[in-house]
Amino acid sequence: MAKLGAVQSPGYPFPPANPAGNELPPRRKLILDTIREADAPMQPREIASELHLHLNTIRDHLAALVEAGLLIRKTVPHAGRGRPAIAYMTPPGDTDTPDRRTSNALIVMLLDHLDETSPLPEVEARRMGEKMGRYLATTLNSERPLYLELLRLAQDWGFDASWHSSSNTLTLGSCPLGLEDKIRCNLLSEIHAGVLRGVVEGTGHSLDDCKTVSREDGTSCVQFLPKAFTNVV
């Protein structure tokens, strides 16, 4: 597989060296505040119309806010025919803190390390996730249905997660890191899929009865659960 380039300037979301570094340019802060106050994810054209700014200007600022970890992209249905549109929202919890950005930076470093050192990085990422999932299984509330505990875990990670009872499917929506690099996205998706598998296995359920799907864009992965998993852990 293609390898990532040199990592001298990887764009890791490190916290600024001083508090003043947290200040955003006025126009960028205005865009961020507008999205924060919206009732639903906003598309670039909607933001441009509301703020009376050029669409290209909006797109430049949105890209910078995503890179900084202050916004995430979300696929939304198109108003008419055509491909789904891209909208922007603040991460669940909207925790723009140095601790969160440092944590995100470490995750990105881990993804890069896997890609650079492992002959099978996707397999290794899935195994790492499964190991973490087996540990998390020991922390679950045994009096609640497994799907509710999985949903809680996903939301704690920062995913736009939802449970679909008609198909017994747990969907992890927008990736909390808002990554753009496809290699990083794919590896992160494999880790998350592995975590879900590890939780299922760690609670005594058979992996033969479930299915995990890691999507190529890394923005989501899906855990399909049999009806039995709606029972308590």
Offer a few descriptive terms:
233 residues; alpha+beta; Arc Repressor Mutant, subunit A; Muramoyl-pentapeptide Carboxypeptidase, domain 2; 2 domains; 4-stranded antiparallel β-sheet; two-stranded antiparallel sheet; 7 helices; 6 strands; 44% helix; globular; disordered N terminus
What is the residue-averaged pLDDT?
75
Helix coverage percent: 40-55%
N-to-C CA distance: 39 Å
Structural class determined from secondary elements:
alpha+beta
Tell me the β content. 5-15%
- Largest sheet properties: 4 strands, antiparallel
CATH topology category name of the largest domain: Muramoyl-pentapeptide Carboxypeptidase, domain 2
Rg, please?
A: 19 Å
> What is the CATH C-level name of the largest domain?
Alpha Beta
Determine the CATH superfamily of the largest domain: Trafficking protein particle complex subunit 3
Q: Please count the helical segments.
A: 7
The parts where pLDDT drops under 50 for at least 5 residues are 1-21
- What CATH architecture label of the largest domain applies? 2-Layer Sandwich
User: Order of helices and strands, N to C?
Assistant: HHHEEHHHEEHEE
Shape: globular
